Amino acid sequence: MSELKSIFEFNEKSNIKQWHIVNDDVMGGLSMGLIQINPQGNGVFSGHVSLENNGGFCLVRHDLERIPVDAFYAFVIRIKGDGKKYAFRCKSGEHQRHTYSYDFKSSKKWQTIEIPFTEMEAVFRGEELKLPNYHGDFLAQIAIIIKNGIEEDFTLEIESIYIK
């Protein structure tokens, strides 16, 4: 068993500029998401998903220096949400086009979600690919996306993201 290794822990002094929003406006959509630090020091990913103009998603991502993760087997995220479905994603290389994705339903109470690498499926633009699941050799990016196919407001509070 591996010990927990921090990928990102939010606090009052977190540099929010290390996180980037990607809304569906890259494809003509009108969704609007943002990331902020709340008074408790947690990251808050919130906004509105619009289906207009072929829209339908908001994503927040954190790029990191590519690190080896072969001594680990899972992500551990600590979140509090709004009861909606999200997906946690990762990339193993900065130039990799597809991501590895794992869907989860948030709770209105704090929850710790363990995401085994082997359950993260390869996807590109929302479509599942016929590739092996995440093999957990390197990590270069983490992200959270909301893409439920409905127009909706959303709020997801993020405390920390670890690997174990």
Give an overview of the whole structure.
- By secondary structure, this protein is mainly beta.
- It has strands spanning 5-9, 19-23, 32-37, 43-49, 58-68, 74-80, 85-91, 99-105, 111-116, 121-124, 127-128, 138-146, 152-163.
- The relative contact order is 0.29.
- A 7-stranded antiparallel sheet has the order 2-5-12-7-8-10-11, with no helix packed on it.
- The chain has no helices and 13 strands.
- The mean pLDDT is 95.
- Strand 3 and strand 4 form a beta hairpin.
- The chain has one domain: Jelly Rolls, CATH 2.60.120.430.
- It is globular, with a radius of gyration of 15 Å.
Give a short summary of the structure.
The chain is mainly β.
Topology diagram in text:
Blueprint lengths: L4 E5 L9 E5 L8 E6 L5 E7 L8 E11 L5 E7 L4 E7 L7 E7 L5 E6 L4 E4 L2 E2 L9 E9 L5 E12 L1
Antiparallel strand pairs: 1-13, 2-5, 3-4, 4-13, 5-12, 6-9, 6-13, 7-8, 7-12, 8-10, 10-11
Features of this protein?
mainly beta, Jelly Rolls, seven-stranded antiparallel β-sheet
Number of strands: 13
Q: In percent, how helical is the residue content?
A: under 10%
Number of helices: 0
CATH top level label: Mainly Beta
Structural class: mainly beta
